[in-house]
Amino acid sequence: MKSLISFFTLLFIKALSNIFYRFEVKWPEENKIVWGNVKLIVFLNHTSLFEILYLAILPVSFLRMLSRRMVAPGAIKTLDRPIVGMFFKLFSPGMTPVTRKRDDSWQQFLESMHDDSIILIAPEGRMMRKNGLDLEGNKMTVKGGVTDILARINKGQMLFAYSGGLHHVQVPGEGFPHLFKTVKLDVEVCDVADYKASFNAEMGSRAWKKLVLDDMQHRLETKPPRI
Q1: What average pLDDT score do residues 44-67 get?
Q2: pTM here?
Q3: Of the ranges 44-48, 84-88, 162-166, 206-210, which one carries the lowest mean pLDDT score?
Q4: What is the largest CA-CA distance in the chain?
Q5: Is the CB of residue 187 less than 8 Å from the CB of residue 161?
Q6: If we measure between CA atoms, which residue out of 173, 144, 154, 159 comes closest to residue 48?
Q7: How confident is the model at residue 99 (pLDDT cuts 50, 70, 90)?
Q8: % of the chain residues with pLDDT over 70
Q9: Could you identify which of 36, 39, 97, 176 might form a hypothetical disulfide with 156, taking C-beta atoms 3.0 to 4.6 angstroms apart as the criterion?
């Protein structure tokens, strides 16, 4: 029952997003994404809670899979909000509340992953503010949690979803989003095993994790499309 509620919520978001926004998406080569094999979606350039708008570009069949199998970490601060938190839990029953520390909440999230899970993560772990920095005034960087996830996935495809940013739609802390804007996203697909093996270090080692983070940081700084 929860998965059906989630599925219809995802469909509702997809429909509304397509009504009120225009999407410019750069896809990889035709047929390169096998949606049934997608295990991990890495969303880079986290700028707004309204990034759920990007559900508009996903096939309905994949939304059905997400409603059953999606697992995602969500900031406790966000999920504890009365309206926003309830909404996120509704469209994603598999969302696990985590703190920004490497504590038991993160371990519980990792243990919630299964072989058939589809993991969605924004590895910066916080949103970019209008000045290009996070809420504390720090540079936006990729955090190490994504390497913990990647180390536990051995097969399938991973998608890099590079957001053009949504500050023109809604800036964190501001009110109702602006409608009828153009939203940009570039999508890249990799084989999980090939990506993990592409770094010149023992898989899972500290050196390997640093190389993965350096690669994702480079992607964050160079790959998102410009609005």
Answers
A1: 95
A2: 0.93
A3: 84-88
A4: 48
A5: yes
A6: 173
A7: confident
A8: 93
A9: 39
